[in-house]
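Hi R.,

Here's the chain you asked about this morning:
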Amino acid sequence: MTELLLKRFVPGYPAGLDTPAGRTRAGNLAGAVGILCNALLCAFKFFAGMVTGSVAISADAVNNLSDASSSVITLLGFRIAARPADDEHPYGHGRTEYLSGLAVSVLILLIGAELVRSSIGKILHPAPIEAGWLPVAILAVSIGVKLWMAAFNRTVGRLIASSALEATAADSRNDVISTGAVLLATLLQMAFGWQLDGFIGLGVAAFILWSGWGLVQDSIAPLLGQAPDPALVHHIADVTLSYPGVLGIHDMIVHDYGPGRQFASLHVEMAASADVLESHDTIDQIERRFLEEDGLHVVIHYDPVVTGDAETAEARETLSAAAKALDPRLTIHDLRIVPGTTHTNVVFDLVVPRELDPKVKELKTALAQAAAEHDPKWLCVITAEHGYTGAADVDCEAKG
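And the predicted structure, written out as tokens:
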């Protein structure tokens, strides 16, 4: 069914999903399906809740109403996110999709809080419910529909890398659990006369609140500037280092302005003795390759590295090994030698994981000691800095 819908509404599927227009159409499709299915489930459950007098079934109907509202928000989010860049938003409107995911998450929390209130009232003032096979059938069908919706949204969300649809899929999965609990309470009422309606409603509310809070955290993370996907970081590093003349990379930064709207910058080390125009041409090729094949805007800073000086090479090798011995995550770059009459300055940057911040002074002292032990004339001038990718194990030097 999912495949059929995507083929029907996304031109050129599956290749069409890689285009901005195809991605938007897939998101619009998911939003429309969510609105239709949840509106129908809400109507049927409200009817069942009124017939039986069950607060749990009525609460489940309200939950479906919130899901329909969430789908409206998701649909609007995709439409706004698809707007092209303008003077006021030069990086596009892609982050609107993250905002729509946040709005859905907050709505889930509000519904959960209201369900807590109504369930506590039912526990304090219990009343029998009029259970029957009609509400049982409605709940059973609802579980089947929600299972399909969870699979549908998860599939589409992964195909177009949409956090909003991934959140919607998780919400549909949660609905399967909550509706299953309501169905269980209804069956127990029919079989044994147990009045668990309020308690089941409270359990469902707790689950909704827990799930909603997790979705809030997932939605806020990209807005706050979370670390990029390690797979993307390694991909950028591997592709860049594969080009001839590239000796190493460092200071990589990835900015996320919404799905499909990512920008990256990094420093590329190349031999200072190489022809400057050739090095510049290589950098242009790398930037063009990322834009054409990955849709990724990459800006590269050229760092010339002295390769023909034996003392510079010796210092780089010695201090790199010393840094790794202190902590395997430590790396150095931009090393240069400044000779003097009484001493030689060895100037370089040290990339330090944030959790080692309290030990920066100690690390600098240890590296200076290692340098002095190797050559008493070496005097280290170290600048400590952080990486911005969160991928400490990324290869920074070309192989061979």
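The CA atoms of residues 71 and 141 lie 20 Å apart.

Let me know if you need anything else.
M.
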